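Format notes (please read before filing issues)

Several people have asked whether sequences and structure tokens are stored in separate files. They are not. Every record keeps both together, in the order shown below: the sequence lines, then the token lines. Line labels are part of the format and must not be stripped during preprocessing.
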Amino acid sequence: MDWTLYIYKTIFLVIIFLVTLVVAMYSTYGERKVAAFMQDRRGPNRAGPFGLLQPLADGVKMFMKEEIIPTTANKKLFILGPSIAMTTAMLTGVVIPWGGILTIGGHEFSMQVADLNIGILYVFAMVSIGVYGIMIGGWASNNKYALLGSIRAASQMISYEIAMGMSIIALILTTGSLSLNDIVQQQHGMNWNIFYQPLGFLIFIICAFAETNRAPFDLPECETELIGGYHTEYSSMKLGFYLFAEYINMFISSAVIATLYFGGYNMPFIDQLGLSSNLVTLLGSLFFFLKILFLIFLFMWIRWTLPRFRYDQLMNLGWKKLMPLAIFNIMATGAYYYFTVLT
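Then the structure lines:
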């Protein structure tokens, strides 16, 4: 048994979890800075230089606030809800290839915790389980508005997961694999899937906005109608888990989009520089994170640009627009490959 591999995987898993938490934490800071820029104001600038300690101050505030559990709530499920939301958000990152191969002490290690041959299906499974955290939280609160918010979240995720899954079918037809690592390796250089599946990318990113409950698809948290949405009765770090899970999902969604459509850790023309393999791997990982940060900025940009959908518009877009487009994309991709590759 090679204990070196297990030790490396454990260390790498901890690093990925810590990086995910730090990125999600400072995404809250970035969100407020982007909103301030677009609204011509300063944003957080008091806690530390340039307001960089604001996320830490928010975390301390969440821990120090009084924790309240309604007397009529189902206490076990009330605690389980945010735990599921946070856990499923964190588990998705284990199948994402964060880089190539690192050589340490003569041993080669992959910068991916688990290279599953059904990596895409695993991502969809974790996303699907995440809705239980929202649904359980809304129901266990014994608050009608919270329950309505959780029902909206469940119906929204079901509606958009179907279109998202169908957009992936066309991508699988072009790549021939469900492994995220294989999909990244096929996009070496500038051979990115965005050039072959632009419609699939558009459908996928719209569905990603809906899956993460981000504006303009934030109907489960619609303050103007539902007080605070499915987490109305939550306080202290239980509320913090729900809010934090949203930013973790945004980070993981950006990583998945970059992996599927923008080449993952592949960096154009890097092979022509004559660098060592480890340096190429590290630069590729850095380039991958730059892609993720750009997509996170896109999430924030859209939030502060477009108004919130009405609920009927939300459902119509998912079922009457995105699903037919996804079916058309599958048929067009299949026809193209039939006439150009198989014949």
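For reference, the curators noted about this record: The chain has eleven helices and two strands. The CA atoms of residues 16 and 183 lie 21 Å apart.
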